[in-house]
């Protein structure tokens, strides 16, 4: 079974969804039959590489007086999964290079580790995930070869793959993240209770 996860580093729901999906997969006896593929979905492709306002400040612009309650809701849901979501520290930036790094990690069998490190760096530590030095350090922590990481970031490696994911998302009808696509079927929300994600895996494996 192929499970495609459309996600972006900037999305706190993607971090929550990843943690819940990891739990569902860990519980399932058919885990070895599930091929997980991380797909790039840039929430802010026009964003700068230099950080601006925090995520919490941006949410205040979107939601007005409802923003504090919504920020607290996201924070509490993250805490329930063991995550520290510091929306007052996270500053949205361009994630194109971060996605390219995940593509390199995919080819080296380290995609899950790379996504986890990027999500933690952005949402918990408030780091600039568009900064080359930050990405190099995270690549090293994920177990990637330093020379390969530097070569990718210095050039345009995996740029075509990231852009191909944009087209793939449109073809599948993905309009937001996190979204899950099981064996090419219509996308479903990636933030669901662990029990529901377990059933999603169960149904997908039963259809093989």
Description:
- InterPro entries: DSBA-like_thioredoxin_dom.
- This is DsbA family oxidoreductase.
- Residues 3-199 form the DSBA-like thioredoxin domain.
- The protein has 208 residues and is of the alpha+beta class.
- The chain has helices at 12-27, 55-63, 67-80, 96-107, 111-123, 132-141, 146-154, 159-172, 194-206, and strands at residues 2-7, 35-40, 179-182, 188-189.
- The protein has a four-stranded mixed β-sheet.
- Helix 1 (12-27) links the parallel strand 1 (2-7) and strand 2.
- Helix 4 (96-107) packs antiparallel against helix 5 (111-123) and helix 6 runs antiparallel to helix 7.
- The N and C termini lie close together (7 Å).
Structure described in brief:
It holds the Pfam family DSBA. The chain has helices at residues 12-27, 55-63, 67-80, 96-107, 111-123, 132-141, 146-154, 159-172, 194-206, and strands spanning 2-7, 35-40, 179-182, 188-189. The protein has 208 residues and is an alpha+beta fold.
